[in-house]
Design brief:
With 101 residues, the chain is mainly alpha-helical. The protein is built from four helices and two strands. The chain has a two-stranded antiparallel ribbon with strand order 1-2.
């Protein structure tokens, strides 16, 4: 199996289709030189899961925080934080549905 995986990696490398993360250039330890969100605000990001820009939206953050606080008050024990997998595979929740509406 290891040999087969190594062959596939080499094949992708040869085809130029091997994807790799590039380490960011650091100006100071712990800080990268990525463009600031403000300098990119006029662009639309179709290359990530945040193409709607909700990851940096203050209003959306406030809505999620408020909904999660209400959700926690109705839970016994500790609620699960995070998807833990696809909702199609590991189950849906009322919290996820209400956040989408």
């Amino acid at each position: 199996m290891e040999e087969r995986l190594e062959e596939r990696l080499n094949q992708r490398r040869d085809e130029g289709s091997l994807r790799q993360l590039i380490e960011p250039v650091s100006a100071k330890p712990g800080r990268d030189q990525s463009p600031s969100p403000a300098s990119l605000s006029h662009l639309i990001d179709f290359a990530s899961n945040d193409y709607l820009g909700l990851a940096r939206c203050k209003r959306q953050h406030d809505n999620v925080e408020s909904a999660y606080t209400r959700y926690r008050q109705g839970c016994e024990g500790s609620p699960i934080l995070g998807a833990t997998g696809s909702r199609l595979l590991s189950g849906d929740s009322q919290l996820a549905r209400s956040l989408e509406t």
